[in-house]
Amino acid sequence: MVCNDPCCRLHSRFLVGAHMSLRTPLGQVLGQGSAKDGTGHFWGQRVSGMALLVLGLWFAYSMATIPGFSHSEALAFIAPPLNAVLLLLLVASLGYHSNLGVQVVIEDYVHGHATKLVSLILSRFAHTFLAVAAAYGIIKIGLGA
């Protein structure tokens, strides 16, 4: 028995026959699928998040145990090589993780193509600039310049 109802024919086109697909009808009409980039982004966020957890705990402990917050005490804290390297790792992972998060927000909520592209480029440049500026300061203090 065959159903001749237009509704049945519409749904059976996507569920039965040679053109069986797991894509939604809207996805088939628009011809847009996965960007094949989600897995790397997902793992980047998770790994940088774990690094931030460890480095953030170290930084919070260090700030809680530092004797004071004067300029000379801050320089004395950054000067040892271990602290300088851990601060550099914290800055790098913080900049990377923040960039990934802001990228997701821009991609999801900025709808104009040109505006989205400009926003993504400006975000990447701002994150890179701030991370490099912080790294420069840490290296300069660490080397005693």
Task: Give an overview of the whole structure.
By secondary structure, this protein is mainly α. The chain folds into two domains: 1-33, no CATH class; 34-142, 3 helical TM bundles of succinate and fumarate reductases. It has helices at 6-15, 25-30, 38-65, 71-78, 81-109, 113-142. Helix 3 crosses helix 5 (81-109) and helix 5 runs antiparallel to helix 6.
Architecture per CATH nomenclature, i.e. the level-2 architecture of the largest domain? Up-down Bundle
Protein structure class:
mainly alpha
**Beta-strand residue fraction:** under 5%
Total number of strands? 0
**CATH class membership of the largest domain:** Mainly Alpha
Stretches with pLDDT under 50, minimum 5 residues: none
**CATH superfamily name of the largest domain?**
Fumarate reductase/succinate dehydrogenase, transmembrane subunit
Question: Which percent bin holds the helix content?
Answer: over 70%
Q: Determine the N-to-C terminus distance.
A: 87 Å
Continuous helix count: 6
Give me the CATH fold name of the largest domain.
Answer: 3 helical TM bundles of succinate and fumarate reductases
List the helices and strands in order: HHHHHH
Q: How confident overall, as mean pLDDT?
A: 86
